[in-house]
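Posted in: Protein Modeling Q&A

I'm a second-year student putting together a small comparison for a lab meeting, and my supervisor asked me to include a predicted structure for PH domain-containing protein. I've never done this before, so apologies if this is the wrong subforum. The sequence is pasted below exactly as I got it from our records. If anyone can share the C-alpha cell output, I'd also love a short note on what stands out.
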Amino acid sequence: MQDQLPVSRIKTPLSLRTMLSFVFLIAMQSWMLNTASHNRFRSYSTADYLMIGWLVLCGLLLVYLIVNALRPPAEIKWGAGSLQIRGKTIAAQSIQSIQIDGPVVGIKPIGKRIVPVRLSFRFIGDREQAMKELIRWAEENRVKLTYKRFVKWM
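Accepted answer (user: helix_wrangler)
Welcome! Here is the predicted structure, written out as C-alpha cells:
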C-alpha cells in the first residue's frame, strides 16, 4: 500500500542568505585575527583562541549548509493521516502547523518552536500541483496552514 501513495519530489531549500552571512563572518573574523596577530612578538591570547574556535565552528556550519543544499532530491508521499518525507513517516496528529514562505515549506511538529531542517523543503517539478496536494492533504487532516516567514534551524 505504501508504494501506491501519491508522490511529489522535494529538495532542501538553498539558504543563500545564511551562507553569505557565514562567509561574511568568516572573512571578518579572519581579517581581525590576522590584524591582531600581525605583531610576531605578541603571543596568542585567550580571545585569539576563542576567535579561532568561532572560525572553525562557522566554517563547519558553512560546509554543512553547502552539503545539505547539494543533497539529491527526495520524495514526499501523501498518506491517509500521515506524510512520508525522505523515508520517515510523520502522523498528522503530531504536526502543529505547515508553514509556507513562498516556495519553501516547513512542517512544524507539536512541541517545537522552530521547523527542523529535515522538515523544510521546496517542491521541484510541478510545484503548483504539489502545493494543491499539500493544501488538500492539510485540509483533510485538519492541519493548520500558515503563509508567513518561518524560522528553521540552519
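A couple of things worth pointing out for your meeting: The CA atoms of residues 41 and 151 lie 46 Å apart. The mean pLDDT is 85.
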